[in-house]
């Protein structure tokens, strides 16, 4: 199994794809300009932020760029994980690849290598744009300040792999482009949040109050269960940075006794587990079904 050969095959199949080119172009163009465009919008920022300079200076630029990248990966890059499977099913190139000599393992490995490559490219764009923006807006920045980023580059790569591997899994599971895309959007934007808030609603019943109170710090462990749902874990690799200031946003609300975000370490470990699970399920789905 030649890795370069498999990558070359994927490149040949999709090098003229207008959809992939369009999605990647939007990602590349919007990434640096969305945060820079906010200069004229967020002139005066609310407490606890000292000024809008935190969006562009080291080390906080990594967080804000990462959060923007979170949305861009979801909307643009994650779809490619679906497209590279469903497009081949639609045009029957999947069957043709197997008939002309590729084993199923090699075919799947080609898809896996492609999403890894896309995740690396996305991460490079994130790192380069963040460094350039930070250097422009942080006079006298040294290497220690530039890379004081809580493993932001590693977390961004995992986040890209999270969206892509989830898309790959949905693509192999459903195989129809429109339905797979709908499920991808519906699960991340609606289904998982509904599950999350439904659990909150159940746990607020008095009948379960003893269970909640039995957790450390008055139920933190029980409430935090919902933070470990798959896409929430992946999103928490680069969440909204404002949520790092919970005391300011939740002050006076005694009903909220749980953490909004999971820790960096938990997000990294959880993402690795879910990425591995998505890839495993995609592989099992592909290997167990007719081509």
Descriptive account of the structure:
The protein is mainly alpha-helical and about 290 residues long. Helices cover about 70% and strands about 0% of the residues. The protein is built from 13 helices and no strands. Helix 7 packs across helix 8. About 10% of the residues have low confidence.
Question: What portion of the residues fall into strands of 2 or more residues?
Answer: under 5%
| Uncertain stretches | 205-220, 250-257
Q: What is the number of strand segments?
A: 0
- What does the largest sheet look like? none
Question: Radius of gyration, Cα only, in angstroms?
Answer: 21 Å
Number of helices: 13
Shape: globular
What class do helices, strands and sheet pairing give?
Answer: mainly alpha
Helix content: over 70%
Mean pLDDT, to the nearest integer, reads 86
State the distance separating the first and last CA atoms. Answer: 21 Å
Element-level helix/strand string: HHHHHHHHHHHHH
């Amino acid at each position: 199994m030649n890795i370069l050969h498999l990558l070359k095959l994927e490149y040949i199949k999709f090098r003229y794809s207008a959809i992939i080119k369009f999605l990647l172009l939007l990602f590349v163009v919007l990434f640096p300009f969305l945060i820079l465009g906010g200069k004229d919008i967020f002139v005066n920022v609310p407490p606890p932020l000292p000024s809008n300079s935190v969006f562009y200076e080291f080390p906080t630029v990594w967080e804000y760029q990462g959060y923007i990248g979170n949305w861009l990966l979801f909307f643009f890059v994650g779809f490619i994980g679906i497209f590279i499977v469903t497009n081949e099913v639609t045009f029957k190139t999947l069957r043709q690849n197997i008939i002309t000599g590729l084993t199923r393992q090699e075919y799947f490995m080609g898809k896996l290598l492609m999403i890894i490559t896309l995740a690396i490219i996305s991460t490079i764009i994130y790192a380069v744009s963040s460094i350039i923006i930070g250097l422009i807006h942080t006079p006298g920045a040294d290497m220690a300040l530039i890379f004081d980023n809580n493993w932001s580059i590693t977390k961004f790569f995992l986040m890209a792999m999270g969206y892509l591997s989830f898309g790959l899994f949905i693509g192999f599971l459903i195989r129809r482009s429109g339905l797979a895309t709908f499920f991808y959007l519906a699960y991340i934007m609606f289904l998982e949040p509904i599950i999350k808030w439904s659990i909150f609603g159940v746990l607020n019943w008095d009948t379960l109050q003893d269970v909640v109170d039995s957790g450390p710090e008055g139920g933190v462990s029980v409430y935090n269960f919902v933070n470990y749902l798959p896409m929430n874990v992946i999103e928490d690799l680069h969440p909204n940075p404002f949520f790092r200031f919970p005391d300011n946003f939740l002050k006076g609300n005694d009903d909220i006794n749980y953490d909004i975000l999971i820790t960096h370490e938990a997000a990294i470990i959880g993402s690795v587990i879910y990425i591995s699970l998505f890839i495993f399920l995609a592989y099992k789905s592909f290997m167990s079904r007719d081509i």
